[in-house]
Amino acid sequence: MRHAVLAVNKMDLADFSQSRFDQIVTEFGQAASVLGFQSIVPIPLVARNGDNLASRSARMDWYRGPTLLDHLETVDATPPAETAGFLLPVQLVLRPDSDFRGYAGTVAQGSVQVGDAVIALPSGRKSTVARVIASGRDQGTAHASEAVTLALSSEIDIARGDVLASVADAPRPTARLEATLLWMDDDAMSPTRDYALLLGPANAGARVSTVRHAIDIETYREREASTLWLNEIGAVSIEVDRALIATPYRENRALGAFILVDRASNRTVALGVVDGTGPEASTTPTRRLDGRAVAHVILSALTLGSVTLMMSGDAAVAVGVAGANVVISAMLNRIVPPR
């Protein structure tokens, strides 16, 4: 969440006091300073009577900002995914006959057209887009959020979970994620326990190697921790047993959100967002996790999407931020401001 509206309602109960409004704005600004919002717009309201909702309030003539509806219509809600380099996580490899091989998925960011040079990750093999197919028809180009099938000019080895990317903007494969986790299991997180990490259509064996700190949900401040318990949020380092393509969640939700599944019980134990990635990984699978081979979890029906918060239309603006929403948005956007 990049933008927030602090909608201070029921100003009539404070006799439309500017000083009281300013006090609330100051206190909220101090509390939200660690949440990383790009903008916070405070608006005094009496929603029941429409004051500063759709038209200016004569009873709060000291307020010079926009009405709530005017502001929502002008917020820049362009997703970063629409302007970044092309990425398509492969969900399915289609080969109905020996003459056709297509790679189906939803464009996670950017756009692609026939003739574009692409690279398959994590293998690093390159090719050129020969066809862009959607709804059974060739359409020549595709943009972020479109479900398409790409056919390439040469046959290269691509499997479910791989990513097709523009050659110029290809991310690096990684075997380590720096992430923020919300722990959801009754059993505490264990650094010696094996988990399955599912990120979009990709999956890998994983261990939480380090807990950097937990986050106090009352103050949003960091505190020391060696593990995470039920409903706790923390910053961790995760080691995976194969090269993955991941991006920070603030840059791309499709490749920046994941879940952890306990391999023994098959319970979903945590949801997480990627804050950053470690060094470039080898494209050859390794025997990580104390040398034990880890079988990949096959959950072909599962597609991890983005976490949806209470928002106003397409503007992606949280209105009247309540305590619970603030905690969740802190986790999704990272507890420290973005770089």
Provide a descriptive summary of the structure in words:
It is a single chain. The protein is mostly beta strands and 339 residues long. The protein has three domains: 3-76 and 311-333, P-loop containing nucleotide triphosphate hydrolases (Rossmann fold, 3-Layer(aba) Sandwich), CATH 3.40.50; 82-169, Elongation Factor Tu (Ef-tu), domain 3 (Beta Barrel), CATH 2.40.30; 174-277, Beta Barrel (Elongation Factor Tu (Ef-tu), domain 3), CATH 2.40.30.10. It has three helices and 20 strands. The chain has helices at residues 18-31, 68-74, 323-333; strands at 3-8, 39-44, 87-89, 92-97, 100-106, 111-113, 117-121, 125-134, 137-138, 141-143, 147-152, 163-166, 174-183, 195-199, 202-215, 222-223, 233-244, 257-262, 268-277, 317-319. The strands form four sheets. Strands 3, 4, 5, 7, 8, 9, 11 and 12 form an eight-stranded antiparallel sheet that branches. Strands 13-17-15-14-18-19 form a six-stranded antiparallel β-barrel. It has a three-stranded parallel sheet with strand order 2-1-20, covered by helices on one side. Strand 4 (92-97) and strand 5 (100-106) form a beta hairpin. The longest helix has 14 residues, at 18-31.
